[in-house]
Specification:
The complex is a heterodimer of chains A (586) and B (402). By secondary structure, chain A is α+β, with helices and mostly antiparallel strands. The radius of gyration of chain A is 36 Å and the shape is elongated. Chain B has helices at 10-33, 50-70, 86-102, 130-149, 156-175, 179-195, 200-220, 222-232, 243-255, 280-312, 317-341, 359-377, and strands spanning 4-6, 107-110, 113-119, 126-128, 378-380. Classes of the chains: A alpha+beta (586), B mainly alpha (402). At the A-B interface, helix 1, helix 2 and helix 3 of A face helix 6, helix 9, helix 10 and helix 11 of B.
């Protein structure tokens, strides 16, 4: 005590002031500590309480046909959402909502209470404008209306299997919607809003506006006018023949562009849940079948090109029954000696088997592959099947007579149509495609796919001309395909009536056929190739390809050629071609 | 009594400038911290607008500072045998007002504490906090009394005890409603007594009942216990007891090193309670960053340093003790406030001197700084010799000066 007393009291003052200044320095240290050591957790807390995040929904791109008609689009619908956390009285809110939406309040209240910790809970999607207005009018804190995009298909089931559909989460699930997902899908934006403690918004956070990027539009080669005609004709056909299903493709032989690709029965992507998933299949590319007689021209042309056979050569068709080793071949009608041309015009299996025999397996195989069978065409849609062509080392002497009449092989309708394009375009194998272009959201062209390179020559021009003139045109004029004759256009094509092979092998189902017809027109400058394949027509009503499928092809061609304003190539007609070509219902 | 003269010194200028800077910062920050989406426009009922009032009181405070700085501090001297005893009158008024404020109907309750006396027409909603006046009273009373009794301060019964009793009474009256301010008054008062030469063990002995009283006050008021608990673990109840502390920390951390920018704070929009009064330092940190917060702390530190200089060269014991009291009162309160805002100590309702909104605080802190400035300006006349450290009343200098 004495020591302290003897000291200058100012030393105590110094001590006090010094301590105080040290305390200030320590407090500055404390500030730095708070920022450096606790800063990130505290800032995260700050963001949690101050910010609210609002997705800005993007619009999925349109799918339009080759003339710009919308096939798939995106609209906004009003939907009701709740922020259950801030609703003062959930029971009352449910009561009011149920009155407005016309549902039992017991349906809303439990969900609303269960969703307590969600900040965004969708109560009802797609309400009317009046209902939305009424919900806004309640003034209940925590209820709101938002615009939600949804996919519509204004043409309903048209080209349904080709288009596919979009699942509830906005992803394309099948068809073009799936194939073009990366183009069609955009990116949602995000708005980050700073709010006061009463949840009032007052400004946008730094960098708090990221605009949505809308999806790109996809332009198809499909022409919905032709597609609609095709689907209508197929509908009528399967009704008339009580068939199970039908498939048709219309394509441009020069480029490989697909103008129509129809599967009947179809499904409506607007209500895809109402259809069996089997209907989602685009059977024109996914379901190979034994082509039967429609396959014959490809082999015959190969024989001509290889000089194994020649025009006018005679073949004995054995009056309809031909025992070839262990195998008995039949024709639908018995024929005696037929010329090469007549074998095809009358579609004699026995004649074809003899042509095959003259060619031999190696040449047969060469042309099967050259026409693109046994492998995917490479069309720009997912799910394509390559068909079935046995590897060459498994080909037998049976194969030599089977392949020329379209057996022991499975092809998709698309492969068949593409192969037939060779006769219509002067000898080239084309690359089929349905996606013509991709456009930016503002309509600018992003990518143009409209001229894919073809895959090389299959037949010399001379052979193509001979096949057209001597074989395929007469089939329509005087042969099995007479039902597809048009008044003003020269049509050439080939019928097919194929038995359906038993699943798992072992022969064919009884009275089960695929009746098909593949054709092109106009003959002097072919613009369209059409294939129609009708599965399981009722035999008692009719089942020959020339009976069931050829009239359908005729109607499709008549309507489409006129619609496309293609010049007639049949002389001797003075009528207005557009009018004259129209009678699809004669 | 030696002749003295007053003239500006480096110290008095520095103190004035720092005080003026802090007052100016207060005007700006109160205006910023008052931002609200629900606030009426400034022009509507401007007399009730907190920012406008703060500006007006701040200007009044600056004028007060200048006037007090020019008036000789010696007028607070206790004179023998005279009715002119401003110190005692002030003490009486303070005790009276402190008692009055506790009486329901006279004292006005705001935010759960009865600390205000209504003043003027009720429409203006003007209030007066006697506890702010008590800070001034404690400084001048202890300084004047110690300067008067001189070495008798070392005598327990006749020297120290009466002063302690006065302090105890004021402390008790304030502490009933305002624990933080009572602790501040006691702390500053005891430090002044020690600085005046009182025996340490006397003060230590007498602080025992004060500590006991403090503990009693804490236990008697449940909210104080809760504050201590929530200080120890704010995260235990982030939406309840710990809310204020967490929000204060969030506000500080939001600023980072350089701050969001003046006016750009977010926490003041309803998240941080008391953002323009007791917790304005957090708003400063959010908007001006660690740099801004540290600058404010440094200003107070420099103020303390300059106050220390002023008391070292004071011309008399009264001046020395007034300078000590004023410096400690400002410094302690600033340190306590920053400690509360940074959650270094439990929450106490105590403002940041000059800066926090509140007219009474600005005015009486200006008076304290004015006294400090005046002490810094007053020199013993050169003709008399600068080292003369005589007591004003002619009593013996204590110990060292014999």
């Amino acid at each position: 005590m004495d020591a302290l007393r003897s000291r200058n009291p100012n030393s105590i003052v110094r001590l006090l002031c010094g301590t105080l200044i040290l305390a200030f320095v320590a407090l500055i240290g404390r500030l730095i500590y708070i920022n450096e050591r606790q800063g990130s957790t505290l800032l995260a807390r700050a963001d949690r309480q101050q910010r609210s995040y609002h997705p800005l929904r993007h619009r999925r791109g349109l799918i339009v046909d080759s003339r710009g008609r919308m096939i798939a689009g995106t609209l906004l619908r009003k939907s009701i959402f709740a922020d259950p956390k801030v609703i003062p009285d959930k029971e009352e809110a449910s009561q009011r909502l149920s009155e407005i939406l016309g549902v039992d309040s017991g349906e809303i209240a439990p969900d609303l209470i269960a969703a307590d910790d969600q900040r965004f809970f969708v109560i009802k999607r797609g309400v009317t404008d009046e209902q939305a207005e009424l919900v806004r009018g309640t003034g209940i804190h925590g209820l709101g209306v938002f615009d939600e995009p949804y996919r519509i298909y204004p043409m309903n089931s048209l080209a349904g299997a080709l288009l596919g559909f979009v699942a509830a989460d906005g992803h394309g699930v099948s068809g073009i919607e799936y194939q073009c997902e990366s183009w069609l899908r955009g990116e949602n934006g995000l708005k980050t809003i700073i709010r006061d403690a009463g949840r009032k918004a007052f400004w946008l956070a730094d960098g708090g506006y990221r605009p949505p990027r809308d999806g790109m539009h996809v332009v198809l080669t499909i022409d919905t006018e032709i597609q609609a005609v095709v689907e209508k004709e197929l509908e009528e056909c399967i009704t008339k023949y009580q068939a199970q299903s039908a498939v048709a493709i219309v394509m441009h032989p020069g480029t490989g562009a697909i103008l129509a690709m129809a599967n009947i029965p179809s499904f409506d992507p607007n209500r895809y849940q109402d259809s069996q998933p089997a209907r989602y299949r685009n059977r024109a590319i996914t379901d190979p079948y034994e082509p039967g007689s429609t396959f014959k021209p490809f082999i015959a042309a190969g024989g001509l090109a290889e000089n194994s056979v020649h025009l006018g050569e005679s073949f004995n068709c054995e009056n309809g029954t031909y025992v070839e080793g262990a195998r008995v071949l039949h024709d639908h009608h018995p024929y005696g000696v037929l010329s090469f041309e007549e074998v095809l015009i009358k579609s004699s299996n026995i004649g074809m088997a003899k042509i095959g025999r003259k060619m031999g397996n190696e040449r047969l195989y060469k042309y099967v592959k050259a026409f693109g069978f046994g492998e995917k065409t490479g069309i720009d849609i997912a799910g394509e099947d390559p068909g079935i062509v046995q590897p060459f080392n498994r080909w037998t002497s049976f194969t030599t007579s089977s392949i020329p009449m379209g057996q022991e092989i499975a092809v998709t309708p698309l492969q068949l149509a593409r192969a037939f394009c060779v006769f219509a375009n002067g000898g080239y194998l084309v690359q089929p495609f349905v996606i013509r272009a991709v456009l930016a959201p503002d309509g600018r062209l992003v990518s143009d796919f409209s001229n894919p390179p073809n895959k090389g020559r299959v037949l010399p021009e001379k052979i193509v001309a001979q096949m057209k003139e001597k074989v395929l045109e007469p089939i329509v004029e005087i042969g099995t395909g007479k039902a597809s004759r048009l008044a003003h256009y020269r049509v050439f094509g080939k019928t097919g009536t194929a038995q359906i092979a038993r699943k798992g092998g072992g022969g064919y189902e009884k009275d089960a056929y695929v009746s098909s017809f593949v054709a092109a027109a106009p003959a002097d400058n072919p613009q369209l190739v059409v294939i129609v394949a009708v599965t399981r027509p009722k035999k008692s009503i009719g089942y020959y390809g020339g009976t069931v499928a050829a009239p359908v092809v005729k109607n499709i061609l008549a309507h489409s050629l006129a619609y496309l304003q293609i010049d007639p190539d049949k002389s001797g007609s003075h009528e207005n071609p557009t009018v004259a070509a129209a009678p699809a219902s004669d | 009594m030696p002749p003295t003269r007053t003239e500006p010194s480096a110290t008095s200028t520095a103190i004035s400038i720092i005080a003026a800077a802090l007052i100016a910062l207060g005007i700006v920050m109160v205006f910023s911290a008052s931002a609200s989406l629900n606030a009426p426009p400034l022009t509507q009922n401007i007399l009730k607008n907190a920012s406008f009032r703060q500006a007006m009181f701040s200007i009044a405070g600056l004028i007060t500072l200048l006037m007090v700085g020019l008036c000789p501090y010696q007028s607070w001297r206790i004179r023998a045998h005279s009715w002119k005893q401003p110190t005692y009158w002030l003490l009486l008024v303070v005790v009276g007002l402190l008692a009055a404020v506790l009486i329901p109907g006279i004292g006005e309750e705001r935010n759960g504490a009865r600390r205000w006396l209504s003043l003027g027409p009720g429409s203006l909603g003007l209030g007066f906090q006697p506890s702010e006046l008590a800070k001034l009273a404690v400084v001048v009373f202890v300084a004047a009394r110690c300067a008067t009794i001189g070495p008798r301060i070392q005598k327990f019964w006749t020297g120290l005890l009466p002063m302690i009793l006065v302090l105890g009474m004021i402390g008790a009256l304030v502490g009933k409603e305002d624990f933080g301010t009572a602790a501040l008054l006691f702390g500053v008062g005891f430090c002044m007594l020690i600085g005046a030469g009182a025996r340490l063990w006397h003060v230590a002995l007498l602080s025992l009942p004060a500590i006991a009283g403090a503990v009693g006050l804490v236990i008697a008021a449940p909210y104080r216990v809760q504050r201590v608990m929530s200080f120890l673990d704010p995260m235990a109840d982030p939406q309840g007891a710990g809310y204020h502390q967490i929000q204060s920390l969030i506000t500080i951390a939001s600023g980072g090193w350089s701050g969001r920018g003046l006016g750009a704070g977010i926490q003041k929009y309803g998240y941080l309670p008391e953002g323009r009064t007791d917790f304005i330092f957090a708003v400063i940190c959010e908007e001006l960053g660690i740099v801004g917060g540290a600058a404010v702390i440094l200003l107070f530190a420099i103020l303390v340093w300059q106050g220390r200089k002023a008391m070292m060269r004071a011309d008399s014991e009264l001046g020395r003790l007034i300078a000590l009291g004023a410096t400690l009162m400002i410094g302690f309160q600033a340190a306590m406030n920053v400690a509360v805002v940074t959650v270094s100590v439990p929450t106490k309702g105590i403002g940041l001197p000059f800066v926090s909104a509140g007219g009474t605080g600005v005015i009486f802190f200006s008076i304290l700084v004015g006294l400090l400035v005046n002490v810094a300006r007053t020199r013993v006349s050169d003709t008399e010799g600068a080292s003369d450290n005589t007591h004003l009343d002619g009593a013996h200098p204590i110990g060292w000066a014999a």
